[in-house]
Amino acid sequence: MKMKFFRTILVGVVLVTCSAITSYAQVEETSINNSGSFYSLFGIGFPTDHNTSRELGMGIVGVSLGGIQSNSLQNPALWGSNAFTTISTGFNLSQFQTSNGTSENVNSLLEPGYFQATVPLLKEKLAFSASMYSVTRSNYRFVTFDSSATTQNNTVEFGTDIRGTGGINKLELGLGWKISKNLSIGYAPSLAFISQSSSKDVFFSEAGFGNNSINSKITGTAFGHRLGALFTMRKVLSSKDRISIGATANLPINIDANKETTATKFVDGRDQEIQLNDGESGEIRLPMEAKAGFTYYPSNFVNFSVEGLYEQWSDYNSDFTLTGNNADMQDRLKVGFGGEYHPYRTNSGAFLSNFRYSGGVSYDSGHLEIEGEKINTLWFSAGLGIISPRSSSTVDFGIRYGLRGTTNQDLIREKIWTFNISVNLSELMFIRRRFQ
């Protein structure tokens, strides 16, 4: 009965996901509101949270949060504890309510989160992980209107449509090794690649002026390296408690990149595409990142986490500029605190034992300083996990509310609602039991 319930939930999540993706695809080309944060136009995009919904629901990074009921990208050292092959994926649906003090707008964005497959090579000892996830993301679009006087003392009105997509993604392979019952380590090399596009279209009210557009695209690749460690102690304050301390480090990456720029102009009664350059070569430096934190388990049913990350964005450098060149990069610090209550018991007949509940809060100093204003974010989070009674598979839901930016200096204040879903399937989901 409980297994059928979990499968029903899982099928429902898949159907909702497919329906949402289909609806999103139908409006993608026409909806001006289909965009993300305004602040993703600066640099190489806004840093993304490639977390599971479980971690997002707690408001934490996830480097010290283990358990067989959920896979994690955050710390390679966690993979060595896996007993079963696990596949995880998720997506995010976000709404941005923006204001500049005089006008308001609402943007919405549906985007994939991550994909990860973990395969134990030695059960609960050594495991292999393959994953793909985003590091930064640009997704913005906004339109402005203005007018200009012509030489004939007439006034022509024009509109400017500025939009951008892309960012940096990683294809990562790695190993997690549980050296002893107290210590685990991990290493994950990756291929980082950037594909970031920006376009600016100008439309005039009079046909004689024609329409102009400029399109730029940056592409490039580089290899990255990530290290992780996890230390676990039991019977710290009581005979049933334990504590996990986790840390990871992403080494700086220098991406060899190329930028191409084309323009489309109205010439001799028709649009013509002009190559503005033969391709500019340069380098983009992605800064070092460090994460650390601890999780305390007073019992098997409750846990609390305090975690944070540090990114040295003051070390960021790029030989290219698409848009947003008036922003200064600063070091980013994010700190989160959250807790979980999971009253589930294996083969329990209680309905509520199939769920786990979480909540948390986090503060992100941000990596941008614009016109002397730091673009920080305050997040409030809650989560719900549905656990399969006969396997380690889960479906996790997370909801977050965030406040980002400011209306000072004609900047944008964002109120953000984000809904996250993660599906975590273990190999036990696909094993037929001989006895019911």
Mean pLDDT across all amino acids? 83
Strand content: over 45%
User: How many E strands?
Assistant: 22
Order of helices and strands: HEHEEEEEEEEEEEEEEEEEEEEE
- Biggest sheet, in brief? 14 strands, antiparallel, barrel
Percent of residues in helices comes to under 10%
**From the helix content, strand content and strand pairing, which structural class follows?**
mainly beta
Give the N-to-C terminal Cα separation. 10 Å
Strand order of the largest sheet: 2-3-4-5-6-7-8-12-13-16-17-20-21-22
| Total of DSSP H or I helical runs spanning 4+ residues | 2
Cα gyration radius (Å) = 24 Å
Stretches with pLDDT under 50, minimum 5 residues:
1-33, 429-436
The shape, in one word, is elongated
Structural account:
The protein is mainly beta. It contains two helices and 22 strands. The protein has helices spanning 2-27, 53-58; strands spanning 46-47, 86-99, 104-122, 126-149, 155-178, 183-204, 212-234, 242-250, 253-267, 270-275, 280-286, 289-297, 302-311, 317-318, 327-329, 332-341, 355-364, 368-370, 373-374, 377-387, 394-405, 413-426.
Give the SSE layout.
Blueprint: H1 2-27, E1 46-47, H2 53-58, E2 86-99, E3 104-122, E4 126-149, E5 155-178, E6 183-204, E7 212-234, E8 242-250, E9 253-267, E10 270-275, E11 280-286, E12 289-297, E13 302-311, E14 317-318, E15 327-329, E16 332-341, E17 355-364, E18 368-370, E19 373-374, E20 377-387, E21 394-405, E22 413-426
Antiparallel strand pairs: 1-4, 2-3, 2-22, 3-4, 4-5, 5-6, 6-7, 7-8, 7-9, 8-12, 9-10, 9-11, 11-14, 12-13, 13-16, 15-18, 16-17, 17-20, 18-19, 20-21, 21-22
